[in-house]
From TrEMBL:
SUPFAM superfamilies for this protein: YhbC-like, N-terminal domain
Organism expressing this protein natively: Nesterenkonia sedimenti
Ribosome maturation factor RimP C-terminal domain location: 118-191
Protein name: Ribosome maturation factor RimP
Signal peptide: none
Amino acid sequence: MASPPRASAQDRFKDPRAAALAELIEPTVSAHGLYLEELALTAKGAATILQVTVDYETGTENVDLDTLAGLSEALSVVLDHAEEEQKAGAAENSAAKPLVDLDSYELEVTTPGATRPLTEPRHFSRNLGRLLEIEAEGQAAINARLQDVAQDGIVVQEIKPPPKKGMKPKTGPQRHIPFGSITRARVQVEFS
């Protein structure tokens, strides 16, 4: 299944409307102990979807459904309040203006998902110990277990497929891959 590219820190907000809404949403996301990965307004037929993608900034814990539900409720209150202030002309800034300009919208609060591409050092830090598929400049794609995240790159141990079905995979030596040479990386879902 193909997954959309994960935004880097510089392009988390796809357009000026999303950037304006991020100013309004980010404090609530942070108050819930989460990091705002992406924010996008997209048309889906007659409806507009306000998709808020969040994750923990550090650690390897996954965001649970209760946390997403609580954040969704809190964001609904914040957005409704800002929209009412904007319509009444009482808003000090125009962060809610993109919502006022819409007939209606649906709020969707989600996480990046297991197989979304890793583009930032903190994305790698969140996946320590996991099996990754990595493509680096001038090298064939490899499957490797993420051992460490350094300031300038990652340390992985390549996992080579077994020569015959039923045999254990072989592991290669640890190696360092600089961030600048990684062209694509994503988590491989493992079933135990």
